[in-house]
Amino acid sequence: MTDIPTAIPVTIRIGGMTCATCATRIERVLRAQPGVTQANVNLVHERASILIAPGTPVESLSAAIEAAGYDPTLVRTASPRAIAADDDAAFATQAKRDGRLAIVSALLAIPLLIPMLLMSLNIHWHLNAWVQWGLATVVQFWLGARFYRSGFAALRGGTGSMDTLVAIGTSAAYFYSLALLLVHGNRSSGQLYFEASAVVITLVRLGKWLEARAKRSTTESLRGLWALQPETATVRRLDHDIDVAVESICAGEQVLVRPGERVAVDGLIVEGESDVDESLVTGESFPVVKRLGDSVTGGTLNGNGLLLVQATQVGQDSTLSRIIELVYGAQSEKAQIQRLVDKVSAVFVPSVLGLAAITFGAWWLSTHKFEPAIIAAVSVLVIACPCALGLATPTEIVAGTGAAARAGILVRDIDALERAAQVDTVIFDKTGTLTEGRPKVVEVFSITGIPSDTIRESAGVQQGSLHPLAKALLEAAGTANLELGRLEHFENVTGHGVKGVVAGQRVIVGNVEWMRELSLDLGPLLGAIHDFEQRGLTTIVVTKNEQPLGVIGLTDPIRPTSAAAVKALRDKGRYVLLLSGDSQTVAEAVGQRLGVNESAGRVLPEAKQNRVRQMQGAGHRVAMVGDGLNDAPALAAADVGIAVSGGTDVAQQTARIILMRPDPILVVGLFDIATATLRKIRQNLFWAFVFNCIGLPLAAWGRLNPMFAGLAMALSSVSVVTSSLMLRRWRPQLDAVPSGAKSS
């Protein structure tokens, strides 16, 4: 039976937003519509992500946004790649349009500004008053029309925006000057403030242009990702190689990848061998040798070999599409700190309007002059633009998650990135995380004196398992050319081992503690068990028909960067734990080599989760790093769950952050970029608040005229967005990693 969807996702691009209050107002409008269950508006991406009940007319959402004074466009494609391309085109078009209008506005405003500049040189010259009026009118009602449309639409909705402040402020200066002109004619030439209204609109236009250019730069990570996939590929059909659109390739088809070309789809190599550069997908800085049977990822760059790849994941199921979807999804979310900013912005504009009214009244009562009162009030309105406040968080999130994605760190949840900056305790699973997860059999003790007997029986029951230890035993049996019996029954006991029936014989393979719980006789094996454990080997016991058969010792090589990652985490004050299902002796041996604070063996999945909660109960912020099914409960319980790519699907679905390659040094990188992003957000918010705390009193006291207030306002917004671009240069610090380890 097919499940009926409870909510349908809808994406609408929104033009005309200028600040956080715009986004907040649109969210409020959308959430008030019948059938809308959730609505989030991203100011940087200029997009609303909405969940609606089945049957809800999408047209009503667009109509509501338009009635609020903004320009909605329904995004009809669900492809992240197409959305990213659409975003890029929209940002480029907007930047060009804003640039043209800013130039035109500047050309009209400069003649109005020249007399003011000449006054500083003690040269008194003024344009004809009616010429001033003509130039200012074009700027005010053509180039400034957008401020009226958006600003007063917001007022009708019971709120305000940056456009409201600009529209009211410049209108006050314009109509005051027009009144003087109508009363005194050309004699009022030196007393007019047409240049103030025109220059403010010009500066805001200039600021929005620079802001649009900067915002397009912050979304470069998405453009870089979707640009990795070629538009066409060569497919072998009926023994003919033909070029087709990548979107038309089906799973199972064979794709030819020539030297120097990008791999078009996820797949398995069926012919050829080559070095493949995976750096732009996984962050791995060195090419990886790929041979027959190896998997390749769409978007990676082929080296000098010719490859024939059988497609396994295409379209929306491909790794590259999932990466783009994860990055875009994270960038569209709101951090906790942004929700606080939205609440502040919602009351900011009405408060500023009240302050401007108080300023005007105070000046009027104290001086009995209209001119200084209106100028001070206009200055308050203009300098109070909340753009910097609204852009402080989303621009950093876009830049930070984009930089992380380029390094191979995928952030699925913005709150997780925010929490990662506060983590003080890191718990690592051992197998497959700090170790390579490819154990090898290195020692066998068999009661019969024939090691192959123990290997044969243990591998026979492991035919039903996908555990790394099972793969090692099956590999050992294959190397010895052993014929395995038919597996008739299989049962996996998580955290303990496996049991089953092989060719009519009951076989149990598992750790020592489980064997003791089952009350099996281990007497003949105790010497070998003690010897293997003292040497730090993973020790498993094999029994046949409830009788001891042998002991197998395995070792799992430690990843080359594990020790450097642990050292870097400890150097930065974090407590590092290693939890393993292996024996305490093995866990301690590995932990000692890595330099962790604490090691614990024989830890079952529930115990891992309990340890996470225990640390949280002691007041610690905990990150859990794992790759297996048995790590899923702990990943879900941790403040930050970090899954290693290549592990189980359950682990990756549970975790909120995914490492695209199994390299522990990326954990250090995650905390670094999270800290840098949060620090930038706080810096931006601090300076945005400081800007208003300083600028508003100066404007109210008459120490800041509207023109300089407009310039300061524009520069504050641009500086916030520009500072975000510094995160684009971030790369994981590999200085502490041995040079030989960087290529692993």
Summarize the structure in short.
The protein has 744 residues and is of the alpha+beta class.
Walk me through the topology.
Blueprint: E1 8-15, H1 20-31, E2 36-42, E3 47-52, H2 58-67, E4 71-75, H3 80-119, H4 129-143, H5 145-156, H6 162-184, H7 194-218, H8 220-226, E5 232-237, E6 240-245, E7 254-257, E8 266-271, E9 274-277, H9 279-282, E10 288-290, E11 295-296, E12 301-302, E13 307-313, H10 319-332, H11 336-367, H12 370-383, H13 387-406, E14 409-411, H14 414-420, E15 425-429, H15 430-434, E16 440-446, H16 451-461, H17 468-479, E17 487-493, E18 497-502, E19 505-510, H18 512-517, H19 526-534, E20 538-544, E21 547-555, H20 562-571, E22 575-579, H21 584-594, E23 598-600, H22 605-617, E24 622-626, H23 632-637, E25 640-644, H24 649-654, E26 657-659, H25 665-700, H26 706-725, H27 739-742
Helix pairs in contact: 1-11, 3-4, 3-7, 3-8, 4-6, 4-7, 5-6, 6-7, 6-12, 7-26, 8-13, 10-13, 11-12, 11-13, 12-25, 12-26, 13-25, 13-26, 14-25, 16-17, 20-25, 25-26
